[in-house]
Write a structure and sequence with these properties.
By secondary structure, the protein is an alpha/beta fold. The protein is about 45% helix and about 15% strand. The chain has 2 domains: about 50-170, Leucine-rich Repeat Variant (Alpha Horseshoe); about 180-455, 3-Layer(aba) Sandwich (Rossmann fold). It starts with a helix and ends with a helix.
């Protein structure tokens, strides 16, 4: 039975001892143990020790042999690795072979890596791209990689766009990331959101959380057709994308909607709003991050089971809809979350930390709220969670369909700035009533569109 100590002693004595051990191994388990525990390989290590294992029938043994070949960075084995990358029956072995070619960082391997850009496995191509980017600036490399801009795989497209396009096309904001414009801080505007957003500069908002009007399910949300409704939402969320700061979040609360049947001779119609709006959002530049399911108590929703409860006939089953979706999106960027966090000073980050218990799963059990004026309001707890998890103190929190202003109250409670728009006068007045007793570090301005337009000129 081979031990780690045997391997260490053999490495110290040189390649001859390693050859002896490798030839004595006739059991797959021992071979795997040997290859997993080779560890650091000295510069004079002879990769020929590994060559018999590269041809082994066991895919894990081939994988580990290839991984160790990559450690020694000897172009002598480049042809072997290319052959494995092109022809091995195991995709993991193929990808590791490309990775090992890349770790050599040799210009001699450029033609081999370019050849792998035509592979059918996107992960093999991505490994080859990663290896070739070491030589970015080489005309042949740049030309080959730029040809992947139209590749059918969206991840490959994104990598190439980031490396060769986004840094030249991006309109940079002159405003520091943690700052926003004074004329939209702690402001509620009674106007159509599209009119208001036209006056808001690019990259001004840190977080948007909203629940749009549901398609023809309420008196205040009547549209001639479903496509008109989706087009309207797309217009709004395109503007939200523009005014959102790089890498920051947009969270959309929606659910499928049932339009009741006209008569007993007709069926009701169910519209899958979250699923139908999603393609629009991705196309306009939002990256989908998470789906959070908000679960309400069954007693709080309309019962659809009455008929089925009586007759129990198949095909007529209708579950009670207890859930809504919080679809979490992030404005597309080449920068990681860490970059966004580093835009804040140490004290702000410390003060904004989510302390104590927090929700660890994507299913949130929260009771709905009811309001004497607005028929569909956010629960305050729902807003508190979103604001805490997706923003820092002092950030600007936006709701384009503010309703009764619950998100504004949550923003105030947690030391954020609010920016709300609400089209309907009765709801605008309700927002005033809801926020008037809240404590905040600045006075809230309640503006008409004309007043807001004048503020924007200052």
């Amino acid at each position: 039975m081979i031990t780690k100590q045997n391997i260490i002693e053999a490495k110290n004595k040189g390649n001859g001892e390693l050859f002896k051990i490798s030839k004595s191994l006739n059991d797959s388990r021992n071979i795997v143990f040997f290859l997993e525990n080779l560890g650091y390989l000295p510069k004079d290590f002879n990769g020929d020790v590994l060559m018999p294992f590269v041809k082994n029938n066991h895919s894990k043994i081939r994988y580990l042999a290839v991984k160790n070949l990559g450690k020694i960075k000897d172009v002598k084995y480049a042809d072997t690795l290319l052959k494995l990358a092109l022809n091995d029956s195991d995709s993991t072995v193929r990808r590791e072979a490309v990775s090992s070619l890349g770790r050599m960082r040799s210009k001699e391997n450029i033609p081999k890596l370019i050849k792998l850009l035509n592979d059918h496995d996107p992960k093999v191509i991505l490994q080859a791209i990663r290896a070739l980017l070491v030589f970015k600036g080489d005309k042949k490399v740049d030309k080959s990689l730029n040809q992947l801009k139209e590749h059918p795989n969206e991840t490959i497209q994104s990598v190439i766009e980031i490396e060769y396009s986004s840094h030249t096309n991006k309109k940079l904001s002159t405003l520091p990331h943690k700052e926003t414009y004074s004329f939209i801080k702690n402001v509620v505007v009674n106007a159509d959101v599209l009119d208001v957003l036209k006056l808001v500069p690019d990259e001004a908002v840190h977080l948007t959380f909203t629940s749009p009007p549901y398609y023809n399910a309420r008196d205040y949300s009547i549209y001639q057709g479903y496509q008109e409704y989706l087009d309207f939402l797309a217009q709004v969320f395109e503007e939200v994308h523009r005014v959102t700061k790089e890498g920051r979040f947009f969270i959309l609360n929606t659910s499928p909607i049932i339009i009741p049947r006209v008569s007993r001779q007709h069926s009701s119609k169910r519209y899958p709003i979250p699923f139908d709006i999603h393609p629009y959002l991705v196309k306009m530049g939002w990256d989908f991050i998470d789906d959070i399911v908000w679960v309400k108590p069954e007693a709080s929703v309309k019962n659809r089971n009455a008929g089925f409860l009586q007759h129990r006939k198949p095909l007529a089953y209708k579950p009670n809809p207890l859930t809504e979706y919080l679809m979490v999106y992030r404005k597309k960027t080449s920068k990681l979350i860490d970059w966004n966090i580093k835009q804040y000073d140490h004290q702000t980050v410390k003060d904004s930390k989510v302390l104590g218990e927090y929700e660890t799963k994507n299913v949130w059990d929260i009771d709905p709220s009811f309001d004497k004026v607005h028929s569909a309001v956010f629960p305050l707890e729902l807003c508190h969670r979103v604001v805490k998890y997706y923003s820092f103190k002092g950030d600007l929190i936006f709701d384009p369909f503010a309703g009764s202003g619950t998100l504004g109250k949550a923003a105030m409670n947690l030391g954020r700035n609010l920016f709300l728009t609400e089209k309907y006068k009765n709801y605008f007045e309700r927002i005033k009533s809801n926020l008037k007793n809240a404590t905040f570090f600045d006075e809230i301005k309640y503006l008409t569109y004309e007043q807001f337009r004048e503020e924007a000129k200052i």
